[in-house]
Write a structure and sequence with these properties.
The protein is an alpha/beta fold and about 220 residues long. About 40% of the residues lie in helices and about 10% in strands. The protein has 7 helices and 4 strands, in the order H-H-H-E-H-E-H-E-H-E-H. Strands 1-2-3-4 form a 4-stranded parallel sheet. Helix 3 runs parallel beside helix 4. The longest helix is centred in the middle third of the chain and has 15 residues. The protein starts with about 30 loop residues before the first helix and ends in a 7-residue tail after the last helix. The C terminus is likely disordered.
């Protein structure tokens, strides 16, 4: 593992999301760390050691920002470490999206170097840029998703153009993928819409699920 040049974690005696509330960029998150706190609570239900695949899939979250959030001096090294560690532990992989574009490229590269597959989650850019990212990742993607609740994410605000996607726009992306390449055929089970689990996004989820029948 790479030695961190600047440690962003507060090294609490118990990692439960309460010690770094609102620490952005950093280990914490927005909305008083609600998503982080819920995730940490759920970890108590996961047994230690190699995760048994017959009990479901434990998957790495689609993270970027190793420099801003974890204290790495190089985003590429962050992805190398986290992807290699997940493979060693038997955890399924994901690649996240961010700015600059190299974050996404290096994530895909780390998966590719291990001859592995990953879930690829793309920020809600304009459709042309989404298509570019799908093409960049199609050889390593086993699942493709659009991170729709990040359209107004604090750490990317005013840096890139993200859109509040409608169900019609997402359906257009799904249909594009279905017509693109047979190995990336998308169904309800594989075209994922990534939502952080917070009270704020529960409402968004309920609204979106009303139109989910269009994806079948």
């Amino acid at each position: 593992m790479t030695e961190l040049t600047e440690k962003k974690c507060r090294l609490c005696s118990e990692c439960n999301g309460f010690g770094c509330k609102g620490q952005i960029p950093g280990m914490g998150g927005s909305d008083n760390n609600e998503n982080f706190i819920l995730n940490c609570a759920d970890w108590k239900n996961i047994p230690a050691g190699i995760f048994p695949r017959n009990k479901g899939t434990l998957r790495l979250a689609p993270m970027t920002g190793g420099v801003e959030n974890a204290g790495y001096h190089d985003e590429k090294l962050f992805y190398t470490d986290i992807i290699n560690s997940c493979i060693e532990a038997g955890i399924a992989l994901s690649v996240g999206d961010g700015t600059p574009d190299e974050k996404f490229i290096w994530g895909c590269s780390a998966v590719r170097q291990n001859n592995a597959k990953a879930a690829v989650f793309i920020k809600p850019y304009p459709d042309e840029k989404i298509e570019e990212r799908i093409e960049l990742s199609q050889d390593i993607a086993e699942v493709c998703g659009i991170d729709i609740d990040s359209y107004n994410i604090a750490t990317m605000r005013n840096l890139v153009h993200l859109e509040k996607k409608t169900s019609e726009q997402l359906l257009k992306t799904k249909n594009l993928l279905n017509n693109w390449d047979s190995h990336l055929k998308i169904s309800l089970n594989t075209f994922r819409v990534h939502l952080s689990y917070t009270e704020r996004t529960k409402t968004m989820t309920n609204s979106f699920m009303q139109t989910m029948s269009s994806f079948i």
